[in-house]
């Protein structure tokens, strides 16, 4: 069973850093793209990366957040620096894969809480 497993959330003071990790388990399929999203009022993209290394960031995280990947481990990371109280939210990881028949697959993790205190 394919699962997307997040870790690394927690409580940090403003100006601090956190590193979120997201791993795909239960499959030998490699990801095409993975991304981090925050819940906010509606789930919105924070950072996105393709298997070839193309990245995209929401304006709110540019210059502070860095997404990276380890293709061999089917894992992506989100380094969050200079955190602000407004970054507080539940962060979800999403993974896009393709099955053996060429059909797209999309999975969400369970979410990890990031809380930034002022």
Note the run of SSEs as H and E. Answer: EEEEEEEEEEE
Number of helices: 0
How widely separated are the two ends?
A: 40 Å
Number of extended strands? 11
Mean pLDDT: 95
Q: Quick one: biggest sheet?
A: 7 strands, mixed
Strand percentage lies at: over 45%
Overall structural class, as computed from helix and strand content, comes to: mainly beta
Low-pLDDT sequence parts? none
Q: Roughly how many Å is the radius of gyration?
A: 14 Å
What portion of residues is helical? under 10%
Overall 3D shape = elongated
Q: Could you write a compact summary of the structure shown?
A:
The chain is mainly beta and 118 residues long. The protein has strands spanning 3-7, 10-13, 18-25, 31-38, 44-50, 55-57, 65-70, 75-80, 89-98, 104-108, 112-117.
What does it look like?
With 118 residues, the protein is mainly β. It contains no helices and eleven strands. The radius of gyration is 14 Å and the shape is elongated. The chain has strands at 3-7, 10-13, 18-25, 31-38, 44-50, 55-57, 65-70, 75-80, 89-98, 104-108, 112-117.
Please supply descriptive tags for the structure shown above:
single chain; 118 residues; mainly beta; seven-stranded mixed sheet; four-stranded antiparallel sheet; elongated
Q: Secondary-structure blueprint of this entry?
A:
Elements: E1 3-7, E2 10-13, E3 18-25, E4 31-38, E5 44-50, E6 55-57, E7 65-70, E8 75-80, E9 89-98, E10 104-108, E11 112-117
Parallel strand pairs: 2-11
Antiparallel strand pairs: 1-3, 3-8, 4-5, 4-9, 5-6, 7-8, 9-10, 9-11
